[in-house]
Amino acid sequence: MFVSTREIFLANDPAWDAYMKFQGSGDHVEVRTVDQLLNPLAKGAWDIQVSSETLAASVETLPAPHGAEYRLLAINLDEDEYFHPVGWKLLGHDLTDETQTSSLLNCGPWKGRLGPIADRQNRFGLLSRSDAELAQKLLPSEWSENEPHAHVMIWALYEHG
User: Where in the chain are the domains?
Assistant: First the structure.
């Protein structure tokens, strides 16, 4: 699990139309993800590995968000201890490969049995936990066992405040 300060990719960004044409699914108005191509680190920020015990102190060392930035807490549901962090709002669930490329938000449109799941993205482009778990099971058969982006971890994403 890690915490960082990230930029938000918003619908008013000049690159948004090209992104939506490439992505082809969801009618979200912003993107929240662990994928740094879509939500880069804010100036002077970095990812800090945390535990439930070190989270509060680690947040204090991050740059404060300005403008279209936010503090992200990302909990890997496949590897990390899970807890509901006090003072954090659940945004939804992302799916990434081992390079933290979002298979949900940065690998093109989901089709076939994945299409209806992608259509249920929330306003941040994220899924419910049950939809993320279903997609995690379906991706290898829908995209091929040999496709690296089909083997994903589920992340619970939270915003501070």
Answer: 2-160
